[in-house]
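To the structural biology subgroup,

Please find below the input and predicted structure for NNP family nitrate/nitrite transporter-like MFS transporter, which we are adding to the shared reference set this quarter. The sequence is reproduced verbatim from the submission form. If anyone notices a discrepancy with their own records, reply to this email rather than editing the shared folder directly, so we keep one authoritative version.
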Amino acid sequence: MIRDDEPDPPLPRAAPPEDESAPPGYRALVVVVLSPLAFALVFACWTLFAVLGLELRADLAMGEVAFALLLAMPLFAGALASLPMALLARRIGGRRVMLGCLLLICPFLWWISRADHYLELLLAGLGLGLGAGSLAAGLVYVAVLGPSRHTGLALGFYGAGMLGAGLSYLLLPLVSQAYGWRSAPLLYLLPVLAVAGLLWLFADDPDGSGPVAERSLATALLMGLRRLRDWSLWRLVITYAFFFGAFVALALWLPGHLAARYDFPLRVSALWALPFTLAVGAGQVLGGALADRYDFRSLRWWVSAFVLVCLFLLSYSPFTMQIQGVHGELSLRYEAPLWGFELLLVAMGAAMGLGLGSLMRLIHRDHADEMALVGGLALTLGGLFAALLPPVFVLGRAWIGLDTAGFMFLYAALVACMLVMLADHVRGLPPASR
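Predicted structure (tokenized):
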């Protein structure tokens, strides 16, 4: 078992065969550029419902719980698709899987623009979730074909595709205001088709040789599930899944939360949520780049502790406190100003991004030969956690009666995650040190 204080064991990484007809570095450049674009577009499609929430709820008379389930549907479907698609990408090539998944979500984007019933939107959201196959396949693609000396940087750039949420924050309110919400899903059709075309024209896959390619997908999935009994595969994945799921859920929830808390129009609140996504994206690039040079295995503790403090402060709702003084009753009121709330969000987002970027590099360093399995597992757990959060946020607000119930739940979930990390750390110590 690998302990937190041990240096990373050197793992052999088979370099893919270079294309003799391509200039040096061409394949790595294509991988690093096109894969994050595909990631960003899929992520932007997932935020459609969140940014168009007011119009959708008004047109279809949706309650809060129904809307939360709508937000969760793409995440749930994406979580279920991540591991099989990652293993499929390992078998037939990430480019083919990414290309297929991008083309797959196009009819569902068109369907959203024509949907008249809640069930139609749910089914269309289910179809959008299948685009997560592109995320999982892209992760395998970058890990295998990315620049070997800067794998962390390449994985950080790929993870920065989460900035696709910011793209939705900027564009969708403008399109919805000008042409109606039904035109907004069509905005992404042409870019998705364009990136799919670029992948088809300029990207390629390594030769599908070796024992992995000779097994069927069902066999590979079954063998992967058996491997999951090894706890060493879960050690970094659990922390990564928390940060990934928390970011995705907050990206969907923040525009509506800011609109309700500060009485903003949704397009204004979406712009105020944008710095959070930018901070996460920048943090991922920095975390991946630094993890190429340093062993950041203990960084997850510091990042988790910092995020925990931010969540604690964000959990405070405005309140008034009455104090009986010697000269009469004193009244104190607390309400976080917008700039303070925004500053906490940006600081927390930068820390989450730093954790995501460094953790994915460490996962690759420890499990380079099983990146499809472990990376797919990380996206699966993160997607399931993200799908759980929108309904929990709504139900928590109804039960507790506070708008900040979502931050409270994330605080409790991170405490549980850190306790698991601590138990794993203690279990890995020699008996005399416990």
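Summary notes: Residues 371-400 form the longest helix (30 residues). Residues 26-433 form a domain with the Growth Hormone; Chain: A; fold (CATH 1.20.1250.20).

Regards,
Lab coordination
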